[in-house]
Amino acid sequence: NSQSQTLFNMKYMVAIDNSPCSRAAFDTVVRMVNPAEDEVFLLGVAEEGATFAAGAYADYHFIMEVNKKIIDHTRAFLKQHGRELTEKGIKHVCLLGKGVPRETICAEAGERKVDLLVLGCRKHNAVQRTIVGSNSVYALHHAPCSVFVVKTECPEEESNDSEESKATEEL
């Protein structure tokens, strides 16, 4: 019965931005996926951020060059991750999104009818969360599918694991 064979096929989407945290999400998907049956969508979002900050006196040629470099960089790390999946025999599609990452991630997850969206998680302080928000928190509330957040200690994050700061003590 072909219907029962497709019952267990999973569609994963992993959003990557070339950070150590998104690398951890990618590695998690590689461990979770069944290469014989599952499919992975790799999504990199090229956020064209220079335009809104430029104002009336902007050099739009310069802004277009910056945005092109962002797109080229995103395309390059998508291809690299795609090659890794090819080497492991994992079916995949690389997607280059443009726009606001959190909105693009959720929209693409819905468009591709993804079963599980996998994201890395950065630790932001209160000011960073207020200004840039959190893609993972946004996805938890807005994605049309289940969301798996991979928490990891990223090198740029400060660790707060001193003995004094622990709420519990091992006995």
Please, could you describe this protein's structure?
This protein is an alpha/beta fold. It contains seven helices and five strands. Strand 1, helix 2 and strand 2 form a beta-alpha-beta unit. Helix 5 runs parallel beside helix 7. The chain starts with a helix and ends in a 20-residue tail after the last strand.
How would you sum up this structure in a few lines?
The protein has helices spanning 2-6, 20-32, 50-54, 60-87, 101-111, 126-132, 135-142; strands at 11-15, 39-46, 91-98, 116-121, 146-151. It is an alpha/beta fold and 171 residues long. The longest helix is centred in the middle third of the chain and has 28 residues, at 60-87.
Report the helical percentage: 40-55%
- Helix tally equals 7
Report how far the terminal alpha carbons are from each other. 55 Å
Radius of gyration over all CA atoms, rounded: 18 Å
Overall average pLDDT: 81
Query: SS-based structural class?
Result: alpha/beta
Let me know the number of strands: 5
Task: Record the strand order, biggest sheet.
Answer: 3-2-1-4-5
String of helices and strands = HEHEHHEHEHHE
What labels describe this entry?
171 residues, alpha/beta, five-stranded parallel beta sheet, 7 helices, globular
Any chance you could write out the topology, listing elements then pairs?
Elements: H1 2-6, E1 11-15, H2 20-32, E2 39-46, H3 50-54, H4 60-87, E3 91-98, H5 101-111, E4 116-121, H6 126-132, H7 135-142, E5 146-151
Parallel strand pairs: 1-2, 1-4, 2-3, 4-5
Helix pairs in contact: 5-7
